[in-house]
Write a structure and sequence with these properties.
Strand content: under 5%
Distance between the termini: 40 Å
CATH architecture: Orthogonal Bundle
Helix content: over 70%
Structural class: mainly alpha
Largest sheet: none
Number of strands: 0
CATH class: Mainly Alpha
Order of helices and strands: HHHHHHHHHHHHHH
Length: about 280
């Protein structure tokens, strides 16, 4: 029996290490490839590099004019995240605590956002934004990103609020507090875990979004990093190490954010297990 337990333990460790390698090795290969020369990479794509040249990151950053595109991506991502947190928390608290006609039907509508791919409504979205004169503007990226992020954010936050004890809220109501005051002064301060979780998911999604800006934005000056990287890859398709360097620059901020806040993400995901 003990031998079987030890074997199972070693198997689980091997499985964890294998899965970890599947995710980590390609990322490390990308960073290492970004610092190689093109002849060395073409000669041994998966071999040990003859030398490493971090200067490729500087060249890629300058040649892709990433300062401007970084700024655009930061504006779009930060604004999208703020909109999603504000409106998703309000809607989720309403669905969780208030009782009104059509509440369940309205909440069910948001589930459509979890199953409908962006391709299914992209044409209609393009026509709508063209009629509103929003094409080639930053709002043409912010509004669709926020709309797509609201669905999952509302669902997650609603179930989180459902699991929160209502004792403090009931005490506040007895003292004459309004619903909005209870939401702002009691519920949101104790919901930092889920707010951080939704913020990180929304930030990563908005930062990595490609299709929306690719369709909505044709002005090179306001393209975010994802579409500017596509243009850069088209221009320098034969310079593989520069492409890897540019890709590394784009994805590194999201890696840092996730690893810094991974404990908060795990806390937010498991917070629904709270019981009164």
């Amino acid at each position: 029996m003990r031998l079987t337990t030890v074997q199972g333990s070693w198997f689980r460790r091997f499985l964890v290490l294998f899965v970890l390698a599947v995710y980590v090795v390609p990322i490390l290969w990308m960073y290492v490839s970004a610092m190689r020369t093109d002849p060395d990479f073409l000669a041994r794509p998966v071999g040990i590099p003859a030398s490493l040249n971090p200067g490729n990151f500087v060249r890629a950053y300058q040649m892709a004019d990433m300062t401007r595109h970084f700024g655009i991506s930061i504006i779009v991502t930060a604004t999208t995240t703020a909109i999603v947190i504000l409106f998703a928390s309000l809607a989720a608290y309403s669905f969780s605590r208030l009782r009104y006609r059509g509440r369940n039907v309205l909440f069910g509508v948001f589930f459509l956002g979890l199953i409908l791919p962006v391709q299914s409504y992209l044409v209609g979205l393009f026509v709508l934004f063209r009629s509103l004169g929003l094409l080639n503007t930053i709002m043409a990226m912010i509004l669709p990103n926020a709309g797509m992020g609201l669905a999952i954010a509302i669902v997650i936050m609603k179930y989180y609020f459902d699991a929160l004890p209502t004792t403090l809220e009931e005490s506040a109501y007895m003292d004459g507090a309004s619903t909005f005051l209870v939401y702002r002064r009691i519920v949101m301060p104790i919901s930092s875990a889920i707010v951080i979780t939704v913020s990180i998911f929304t930030t990563i999604t908005a930062w990595n979004e490609f299709l929306i800006p690719f369709v909505m934005i044709q002005n090179q000056r306001i393209r975010p990093l994802t579409t500017s990287l596509f243009v850069f890859a088209t221009r320098f398709s034969a310079q593989y190490t520069l492409l890897f360097a540019a890709l590394s620059i784009v994805v590194t901020p999201m890696f840092i954010i996730y690893f810094v806040f991974q404990k908060q993400v795990q806390a937010g995901i498991t917070a629904g297990a709270l019981k009164e």
